[in-house]
Description:
This protein has helices at residues 35-38, 197-237, 241-267, 271-302, 306-333; strands at residues 9-18, 26-33, 51-58, 66-73, 90-93, 103-109, 114-118, 121-126, 136-142, 149-159, 163-166, 175-176, 184-185. The protein is an alpha+beta fold. Keywords: Membrane, Signal, Transmembrane, Transmembrane helix.
Amino acid sequence: MSPVSEAEWTAEFQFRASGQERGGGNLQLWYTKDGQSRVGTSSIYTVGQFDGFALVVDTHGGRGGTIRGFLNDGTTDYKSHGSVDSLAFGHCDYSYRNLGRPSVVRLKYTNSIFEVTVDDRPCFATTKVALPAGNTFGITAATPENPDSFEVFKFVLQSLDSGARPVGGTQQQPIFERSTNDGQINNAGALPRSITQEFVDLGARIQLINQASNNVIRELTNQGAKSDNRHGELLQKLATRDQVSALDARLQRMEQMLQAIQRDLEGKDYKDKFNQLQEALASSHLSLSESLHGTYNVITSSSPRMGFFITLIIVFQLLLAGSYIVYKRRRANMPKKFL
Length: 339
């Protein structure tokens, strides 16, 4: 893109960012001197000593999204600086990811003010910024391992004196930024080539389908591993072939013994033996009853009479009582001696 010759201008920048839930990255709009050589494909964290202004769109601070402004006069090396985030002179919070629509950023620069608006809402403004004519606009982006997809739809530069001035070819078609090996996205000197919106949407859908397919494959792999573990546990609990053969042999022997007993019972008549056993039991019961009855009669006839023992006890107690009375009287009649 050719250098900007107007001293006062406005720029409209439309972009869209979409990606995974924890995706990330940053998008930079540069207005710098010698941007092709000094900025190249760098981001705000990897650029060196640039001269100009950078508008950064990222998820700094974990707020869901921010838009920040950075300035440099060519003396500060951002790449080696210990805290690049502290160099921002203005910012606002803006959740730009997965909105499903383009976000519109407008920059206005005059001799008295420099202001930035997002979706027609003020973002930040200052009266202490001086951006000389002769700088060029450019766009770069950087993505981490889980990248966001940044799409640039429109960039229009308008002079406050001479009206609208198109920049970088067709304005209404999206610009697809293709990643390089180091994660940077070109280009700061000129805008990349444009392709159709359908192709960009198709690429995003394919990425989502690949992610869903990977999740399904991972789940199937986990289920397969669980099934294998379950199968191994069942095999450990099952009996071995030798154990089954031994059990079958024991069952066959038991079956043969039962068949032999059944044949033995069928070949003999045990009715007479049961009748003889019943008669023997009845005879033994009768003899036992008669023996017990005779023994009871002998015991009762030879036992002593209880009346004789009772009379003997009474007589003995009376003799003891008489002896005690005689003893008491004799003692009472004995002479007393006093000392």
